Amino acid sequence: MMWILLILLSYCLGSISFSYLLTKLIKNEDIRNHGSGNAGATNTLRVLGKGPAIAVLLLDSMKGIISVLVPLWLGFSPNIAILCGFAAVIGHNYPVFFGFKGGKGVATTIGVFAAISFFPSLIAGIIAILTIWISRFVSLGSIVFLILTPFFMLYHYSLPFFAIVTGGCISAVSVWRHRGNIQRLLKGTERKI
Asked: Of 4, 80, 89, 163, which has fewest CB within 10 angstroms of its CB?
């Protein structure tokens, strides 16, 4: 039963919207009413600038890291840990504290993947950063990271197959949240940074 509580707590942790809270603190406005309408690091960059965006990226990533590491520290399997990470991503995307209107889950997913499978995440992250640097599309780099990491996790032999499949499901949810970005990329109308 403890693992169910951990999953619920991970969802609640994921539901803390740092982009919303920082924008409210700095501008006394709802970030979801500005820019792309997304409660995440990229929209924070556009609305508040680099400093707050970096803070949101790090804090949102920490939600994923904490949600995975706490179950592992408590002796639970990687399967339970990644389910907790999945719950944190769902919380970020559909936060109970903010009317179920959140972000796309990329930063939280980065934290989950880095905590459960660091080197595959690092390699995918480097490729994603290069993609952003070359294309100037954050969404494209995010999608590259989300697609590559579960495949690279297949080569992380200590991970149970269930954890890898769950990682693929986490990525699928976040890619789905990018469907508007994908359409704009295909039409050539996506905003660059």
From this structure: 4
2-14: pLDDT as tens digits: 999 999 999 999 9
Residue type, 164: I
Tell whether the torsion through CA atoms of 81, 6, 97 and 176 is positive or negative: positive
Task: Please say whether the beta carbons of 142 and 104 come within 8 A.
Answer: yes
Q: Give the C-alpha separation, 67 to 112, whole Å.
A: 7
Measured CA to CA in angstroms, residue 171 lies from 22, 98, 148, 183 at distances of: 26, 23, 9, 18
**Looking only at Cα atoms, what is the longest distance across the chain?**
49
Q: Sign (positive/negative) of CA torsion 146, 173, 77, 112? A: positive
Q: Where exactly are the structural domains of the chain?
A: 2-187
**Residue 42: phi, psi to the nearest 5?**
-65, -45
| Cβ pair 112, 170 in contact under 8 A | yes
CA dihedral 4→10→15→17, nearest 10 degrees, is 180
Q: How many CB atoms lie within 10 A of CB 190?
A: 18
Structural Rg of the chain based on CA atoms: 16
**Residue 193 confidence (pLDDT):** 84
Token pair, residue 70, equals 């706490």
Give the pTM.
0.94
